[in-house]
Amino acid sequence: MQSVVEANNKFTLDLYQVLQKDDKFTDKNLFYSPSSISIALAMTSMGARGDTAKQLSEALHWEAMTSDQLHDQQRHFLDALQDSNAEGNELLAANRLFVQKSLTIEQEFLEGTKRFYNAETALTDYQKDPEGARKEVNDWVERKTKENIKNLIPEGVFNSSTKLTLVNAIYFKGIWQNEFNRRATRSKDFFVSKKEKVKVKMMKLKTKFKHIANGAELGCQLLELPYQGEDLSMLILLPQDKYGLASVEASLTHDKLQKAIALTQEQPPGRVKVYLPRFKMTQEFQLKKPLAKMGVTDMFNAKADFTGISPGLFVSHVIHKAFVEVNEKGTEAAAATAVVMSRSKSPSGGSAKIPVFCADHPFLFLLCHKKSGGILFMGRMMKPEPLD
């Protein structure tokens, strides 16, 4: 699954660069699951042909793989995620097709999504009961994400032209290998910018972690916080400069990030005093414009070629919603992606002193599947919720 993991990680950074430049996210928190998005789009691509398929392949870095290789590697990736469940941890991924009951779909597409993505098919009636269909999709997503992703499909998205919705849901709950002591959590300043600071609940822990005090190429400290079982971890990129996140973001590339992850993994654990804020966020995205900026345009209009699913279909919406909560015990994260299809009417130095990793200013964080190297979630913490 090496090629599909590398493609996913490249897509992670490409999408991050597009989203963080969006006016909606200027100086704001950001959190999404590139894995959920790429799995949903990979299922969609199974029915894409011609330029529609080519644009998806280029934007998601699938060019080095044949279609069969892509879907086979996605299947192995999904299997590897499921195999990472350990005592105290949960990692679940689920896929489903919600099909208009009157729509005739190519049997090869149905069999392929079932074989490679374990996607069950549910018949629904967008034409006569779009609100009932919306409730059906949203209820399924809510169940699969342990009630963390609610109302994925907003009102007004489904209508009588809607024919098919492809949905991926991913859920993660991880217990820290070294839990923070709740009694050590204190109120502390978080420096949002030179002009703003907020009081947050800052967790504290001193123990051995893989830590790089100065990732010179990125200008930040790197810290890995493993979850029980060690298959999964959080990697935090904390700028050396309190107000230097924009500089880190500007210099961040796929190669630099992969090198940072590899260097951190190779690092022997050493004692570190860690300060990390408790935080929680939920974010939702309409990904039509970001994907168009990445070169995926034809699937959203009359040029769309999804004859591998059913003639005349185009994608009207790509909706993504993600949730994360980090506390003393561990991390809970969930995400869901819906592709809605309609029919057209037309290295660091040693020191005796214990290093301090104090995340009291904006930082980036990743939730990684260590066995595959895949990035499951990526986020930016600009401003935790202030204390009441």
Automatic annotation (TrEMBL):
It comes from the Eukaryota. Pfam families: Serpin (PF00079). CDD domains: serpin_thermopin-like (cd19590). Residues 13-384 form the Serpin domain. PANTHER family: GH10112P-RELATED, SERINE PROTEASE INHIBITOR, SERPIN. Belongs to the serpin family. This is Serpin domain-containing protein. It comes from Porites evermanni.
